Each structure stands twice: as structure tokens, then as C-alpha cells.
Amino acid sequence: MTSYLPHLLILDSQVSMTKIIFHMLEGNGWRVSATHHPRETLAALRLGDVDVLLADCYLPHGNSWHVPEILRQSHPTVPVILMSAFVDEIEPGHADNPGVVMILEKPFGPELLLHSLDRALSAASSQGGCVNSVQSARMPFCHHGR
After folding, report:
1. Coil, helix or strand at residue 77
2. Hey, which of 32, 52, 65, 122 has its CA 20 to 30 A from 11?
3. Residue 46 pLDDT more than 90?
4. Is residue 93 included in any domain, yes or no?
5. Are 53 and 45 in contact (CB under 8 A)?
6. Does residue 2 sit within a domain?
7. pLDDT tens digits, residue range 62-81?
């Protein structure tokens, strides 16, 4: 019998970044899949089976700020972690987007990523899937050791 592994879906236009994250999580109890465009992400979410979405804030074909809003309507139990190399440029209101549990600053290491994913799962389960009201798990910015 195989045990259940939570599923992380990554939205990042950089294939190299998705490979780095995959290698960080390989062997650490996560299944990982990646998309490179918001449309692909929404299509993957329709298939179900996603526990956490990790999305880059800024994409070459637009930003991903609307993804948590759309996700909240169709998949309200899936928490979102946003990531960016430019956290100083993020408008404060974006961190308050319903469903967004935290924002990670790139680059980040495996320990911070695993901790963040655990917090996202805890936020979703402790609120019966409603991460919108989770204040104790909300971390506006998670810096990578500064």
C-alpha cells in the first residue's frame, strides 16, 4: 500500500526554477508538478488532486495576481504561496489576497520551502479549507535568512 503524498503545483515561467524546486522536494514527502502559464495552471487544477499552489508573482505574459482569486472561486481549499525575487515591489494589498498564505522571496532554500508548505497545509486543514481567515499562518514575507 502506498501512502498519500501531498501534491504541489508550481506556476513559474522559468523551467530552471521548477527543476530546482522539484529537486528540493524530491524525497521529502511531496509530489511535484509544474506549469508555466496561468492557463495551464487552471487546467491542471481542474483535474483536482492539488494540495498547494506555489506561484511566481511576475510572469513574462503578465502577473499571477489573478490566479489566487480565480482559484478561490473554483478550488477554495487550495492554499497559495506566492514567490518573487522582487518582494520589495509587491503592493501590500496583494499579500492580503484571499487564499494567499504567504509570499516567499527568491532565492530560498529547501528548509524554508518545506516549512512554508507545511504551514500552508496546516492553514488549509485548520480552517476546514478556508485559508482566507487564517491569520496565525499568514506571513506577509518570508525572507531567506536576512
Report:
1. coil
2. 122
3. no
4. yes
5. yes
6. no
7. 656 667 777 777 778 899 99
In the block, cell 487564499 appears at 99
The residue among 107, 43, 102, 95 whose CA lies nearest residue 33 is 43
CA distances from 104 to 3, 5, 80 (A): 28, 22, 11
Say which CATH number the domain at 50 has.
Answer: 3.40.50.2300
Report the domain count for the chain: 1
Nearest to 72 by CA among 104, 30, 92, 42: 42
- DSSP code for 127: T
**What CA dihedral angle connects 58, 9, 71 and 89, to 10 degrees?**
-20
Length of the chain in terms of residues written: 146
Question: pTM above 0.85?
Answer: no
